[in-house]
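Final report, results section. Input specification for complex C-07:
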Amino acid sequence: MESSDAVLVARVLHGEVNAYGALVSRYRDKYARYAVHMLGNREDAEEALQDAFTRAYRSLARCEDPERFGAWLFRILVNRCRTSGARRVRRGQTFIHDETALLNASQEHPAEQTMWREEIERALGELSADQREAFLLKYVEELGYDEMAEITGVGVSALKMRVMRACDRLRILLREVHSG
Amino acid sequence: MADWGRTTLELLVQELQAPVRLDESFDRRVMVRVRRLYAERRPRGVAGWIAAAVNVTRRPAYAAALAAGVVAIATVGMLRSRPTSVAISGPIPVQFVLVAPEARSVAVVGDFNNWGLGDTALVAENHNGVWSVSAPVPAGVHRYAFLVNGEKWVADPTAPRAAGDDFGQPSSALVVEATAE
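Structure output:
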């Protein structure tokens, strides 16, 4: 039977460093999706995720509810993605279309959907980082607004506004693609 | 191509929810970082503790610990504890040793490290079944225990048993003296 997060966290805190590997495996892919979509390229996403896991390990003792390690880790990742995104903006980079990520994500899909996926990634890149974050948390990660507020530190009203604007913008961008 | 009988938003979300898979090399890279952090945080100077105990002049920290008489050595059926007095102010290095060949991990928890809560557990190093860790302990009367495999709470089998077990678990007594010579 799989160990719970709380059991794995306890084992790590008591010196079984390898138990952390089980937590990494458990959350690696689940959270890679968010990082890739948020940052738009696999390299930055992996770096942000590695940072998140490392920071979580370093602060593991401060995880107040080890049973919810995943949620705690995700909050760290969201912050890492913000930092990474801000750094990229300072470097003058734009949202990068990531072919590798798309191919990876498309393995279970017919080849003819590649263009659709490219359109989506491009449209996501057109959003502001705040809007993209709110949209991904709400619709892709399927979090409630209260959870989103807890993770982002942003008020529920502001988050709803960001999601709404993100949806409006995406509809326009994707409609333009299909009508053009 | 897209099924335009459904909303654009639904199709968009469906696509974005497709899994993104990282390969196992990612795990290895993370664990390299984690193990490095783990190594940096482990108490230093434990390796070679047996030699140090035999020839304490080579290791001042151990010499202080031994001189202070606050060496808590728990073996299966054998304990040595030699409390004396030294002119040392502040925490005094104490070496904890447990012989447990079958253990996967051993940590020391006590009132001097908040019972291992947070990241304060003292993780012992394994030397062929002899687990050892050294830690500074303030002068005073303390309680401690060994945490084996992260779950089994083991009192020092030969040290004095502390009255009133904390957390419903047995613990041992440790007296650290720091008085002038």
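The beta strands of chain B are 72-75, 78-80, 92-99, 106-110, 122-123, 125-127, 130-137, 140-148, 152-154, 172-176. The radius of gyration of chain B is 24 Å. This concludes the modelling results for the funded period.
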